[in-house]
Design a protein that fits this description.
16 strands; 5-stranded antiparallel beta sheet; alpha/beta
Length: 618
């Protein structure tokens, strides 16, 4: 049978129809599981492309190869559903290294949600069984069919800006990502420090992407500093912010917002999260540098392994007499934070191990938020009893998947009742419950510190390591959905919010280090950090910002004057947008104009952002 006759045969058409029905059923299950409903036309088009590829696979595989395909298909459907529920996107193949980390497996995969894996595997086997039942004999012309599938994938991969947004089909997305996932580790290794430095010297003119500005006031009595990072928190979850931008978030934290206002916080309505994933966001928040925008995030690891150096905010405070502490809830081994934090200036570094007895194993990601914040409150009281000023950075884990609220005992097994519970649960209900538990715990924590007078001489900054997204019903309608961050500040008593930037200014994670150094009287010691202190009222110039979303692969170039470029991962295609600088997330409109940066300029900027100073004679 020739190539064209194989494509036009009734048997292949029936296989395409079977594959399409199966993919539509998987799509429906993912919508029920995640609550994400993308553009129907885009979903149908991508599922049709996926059905053509899947039909070819069904026609050309048999025996052990067919068995492997069915297992991979079931696993891919399971992971895609989980990733859509957690992050709002399909999975990135290039990030599989983090997914096979033992800490990640015990924290995010071994829980009741894993009960869905055999369900998806059974569903994949059902596809195999139906295909063999309806079409028991193979179709000739297999090589031609493989060429056809490759052409479909080539067209598919070049027709979308992102291969992992919710409208994508999991089969077409998976195979379209394969070439990049294979090449990515080698490309990262080939990107030497010398090449980065050379690109760093070739920046576009009339841009301001590496802006630094501080007020540098004199401070007679430097306050304590409490930096609270909440896993996956978005300011879009605060009612006043979501109403300001006309958002429709899946989570609403009215009680937390009310309590922050009661304690004198200013919540910034245009706060940007630079990237996704904890290590990327944490690096920016502590070191005043862009996060690692590359697929393989290396900045924190390179510092931890003494291949690169970072001049970070905690080290400046430590050198000035502060006691510095980093207390997180999760295990320190994951993302090498146990090695990274001492190298950037933290004296006291603890993780999940302090919440268990000697000889015990950490359960999942660590303690639920009620346990975590209660423990932290006691430790801060002991620390505050000393004479030296202190700076403490916190990172919870209860709002990280699988959203442990502490209501389930760690040794509880998984059974059919858990599967029924998963089937009956409302989409995003686990996230909402975890965020509610976090808000209650954080409220008690802040109330307790306030009643003990600890907040009187403490600068408190509330932010997040990354934005959780889920702020619009259609996550692909507008850019920056996964970059709606959070930044709230409470000055110490004797200071005034009148000194701080207004609440509608565009702020970002990189603004945290210069702000802390400014408030503590160390504004002139920011060194090469970038970012703009919140104590700067009169901006000397409008700045530009680089942002990205590693889960969709999209890269952004933002000008505070009201321009945005949303580009594909390789930055070969971009769409242009405008916005009101005082209402960034609520006024985005696509415009038909040429990008304000060329491809070469876009590439040079991100190469420059990736550069880190190597350690001499490591």
């Amino acid at each position: 049978m020739t190539f064209f006759s194989a494509l036009t045969s009734g048997r292949f058409a029936h296989t395409v129809l079977l594959a399409l029905c199966w993919l539509l059923a998987v799509r429906a299950s993912h919508i029920l599981q995640s609550g994400i409903w993308a553009n129907p036309a885009a979903m149908l088009a991508s599922d049709l492309a996926g059905a053509l590829v899947l039909a070819v696979l069904l026609c050309v595989t048999s025996g052990a190869l067919r068995g492997l395909m069915i297992i991979l298909l079931g696993c891919a459907a399971f992971v895609a559903g989980m990733h859509l529920t957690i992050h709002g996107t399909l999975f990135q193949l290039s990030l599989i290294g983090k997914g096979v980390d033992p800490t990640f497996i015990t924290g995010s995969l071994i829980n009741k949600h894993s009960l869905l894996l055999p369900v998806y595997l059974l569903f994949a086997w059902l596809l195999h069984w139906l295909h063999r039942r309806l079409l028991p004999t193979a179709i000739a012309g297999g090589k031609g069919l493989v060429v056809f599938a490759a052409l479909v994938l080539a067209v598919y991969g070049t027709s979308v800006q992102s291969l992992t947004t919710p409208a994508n089909n999991l089969v077409a997305s998976f195979f379209s990502q394969l070439p990049g996932a294979v090449v990515s580790p080698f490309a990262s290794a080939a990107n030497t420090d010398g090449e980065q430095a050379e690109n760093a010297q070739d920046l576009p003119e009339n841009t301001n992407f590496f802006h630094q500005q501080v007020a540098a006031p004199y401070v007679e009595n430097p306050p304590n500093v409490l930096l609270i990072m909440i896993e996956g928190l978005s300011a879009g979850y605060f009612p006043s912010v979501s109403n300001y931008h006309n958002l429709d978030p899946s989570v609403k934290l009215g009680s937390l917002e009310e309590n922050l206002n009661r304690h004198g916080f200013r919540i910034y309505r245009n706060a940007l999260s630079m990237e996704r994933q904890t290590d990327r966001g944490t690096f920016s928040i502590l070191c005043g540098e862009y996060p690692d925008f590359r697929r393989q995030s290396r900045k924190m690891v390179d510092v931890a392994e003494d291949r690169a150096s970072a001049d970070c905010m905690p080290s400046r405070l430590l050198d000035s007499g502060y006691t510095t502490a980093y207390w997180q809830a999760a295990p320190l081994d994951y993302m090498r934070k146990g090695d990274f934090m001492p190298r950037v200036g933290f004296e006291d570094v603890t993780g999940a191990e302090v919440f268990i007895s000697e000889g015990e194993q950490v359960e999942g990601w660590g303690p639920p938020d009620p346990t975590y914040f209660d423990n932290i409150g006691k430790r801060i009281r002991r620390l505050d009893a000393t004479s030296d000023p202190w700076m403490v950075t916190l990172l919870n884990v209860g709002t990280h998947h699988p959203f442990n609220t502490g209501k389930r005992k760690p040794d509880d097994g998984f059974d059919a009742e858990d599967l029924e519970e998963l089937a009956d649960a409302e989409p995003q209900e686990a996230r909402r419950e975890a965020m509610k538990t976090m808000a209650e715990s954080l409220n008690r924590f802040l109330d307790g510190l306030a009643s003990d007078g600890i907040l009187d001489d403490t600068l408190v900054i509330l932010t997040s390591d990354e934005s959780g997204g889920f702020i619009r019903k259609d996550p692909e309608s507008l850019p920056l959905n996964n970059n709606v961050g959070v930044l709230a500040v409470r000055p110490p008593n004797g200071d005034s919010l009148a000194r701080y930037a207004p609440g509608n200014r565009i702020v970002a994670q990189i603004d945290v280090p210069p702000t802390i150094l400014d408030v503590t009287g160390l504004g002139r010691k920011t060194g090469d950090m970038i970012g703009r202190s919140l104590l700067v009222w009169q901006t000397d110039t409008e700045r530009d910002l680089l942002l990205a979303d590693t889960y969709t692969g999209l890269k952004y170039f933002l000008r505070e004057s009201g321009q945005l470029l949303s580009c594909s991962e390789l930055m070969t295609s971009c769409s242009a947008w405008t916005f009101d600088p005082e209402r960034l997330f609520g006024t985005l409109e696509e415009v038909d104009v040429d990008p304000f940066l060329t491809f070469e300029e876009r590439t040079a900027l991100f190469n420059n952002a990736a550069y880190m100073k190597p350690v001499e004679n490591p």
